[in-house]
Amino acid sequence: MLHTIRSRSTATLKGGKGTSRITLGIGDDCALLRPRAGEELAVTTDLSIEGRHFRQEWHPPESVGHRTLARGLSDLAAMGARPVAAFLSLGLPQEMTIAPEGSKAWVERFLDGLFSLAAECNVPLAGGDLAESPVAIADIVLTGAVRQGKALLRSGAQPGDGIYVTGTLGGSAAELLALEKSPRSFAGCTQAGMDHPHLYPQPRIAQGLWLRKQGLASAAMDLSDGLSTDLTHLCTESGVAAEVDAEALPLDPGATLAMALHGGEDYELLFTASASAKIPIRIAGVPVTRIGRIRKISIGQPQIVLLTKDKSEPLHPRGWQHFTG
Predict the structure, then answer these.
(1) Do the Cβ atoms of 41 and 87 come closer than 8 Å?
(2) Rounded distance between C-alpha atoms, residue 132 and residue 141, angstroms
(3) What is the CATH number of the domain that holds 298?
(4) Which of 49, 156, 170, 253 could be a cystine partner for 260, CB 3.0 to 4.6 Å?
């Protein structure tokens, strides 16, 4: 199995563009990375644990591999970083490495999904580890490069800024609900597609790079835990408050307002920009929607307010939070 991963990773390194950024990949004790002059490295890591982040009876192995990589790539996109290399550590029960007759092993199909997205986003697998484990665990480390001092951060939003999101919201939560009700109907979803926002989320690398290069975003992050929770994080880091227009939210077909606000795992970009900034309605082919505005913190007032036709109400963080029960 290690030989299979190594050979596929080597093919990716040789076949990818701009791989001079990796001077030594899989095969030695460490990988060697070489960022361009004037760049700094962005590093992120994410765990995918069976029973918590995916279930074998719900998620095709290709989807698990895709999602494992997409989560880290989404973090790089949020900072406007160019992907450099990925590192994957896998812990698997032995049966997941054995191929059923006439089929591929679970781990082979997992790698099909991961390498497909890696090729699409031009990010080679440069290292990692494989071990036997009682439960399936995938730990992904992503490195990216960004011009020194130019990374998009959560801490730059200012009162008066507009609040924007890419794509649509709530699609992942809606598909997860459908998956829970009828997992067999998704058994054949073994390839990425825009119509499967939960199984095959699309990291917004091109959009993050565009925002960073244009210098239009004052703050940014990705939507992994739900809009209500992630916007709270952004406001807290920036020391500001916010208003969200409920009617402006770009709901994914089939999603409810609650799914868009709290569902999580949309992996879209959430960013702010000054009122004078000219934000296009599409960035690299993906729709961009203004959903609200940043305001000053007022003592005794909620940090985030949801505005509807008839009223305003506090928008509390009700997205995903670990260890909350």
Answers:
(1) no
(2) 19
(3) 3.90.650.10
(4) 170
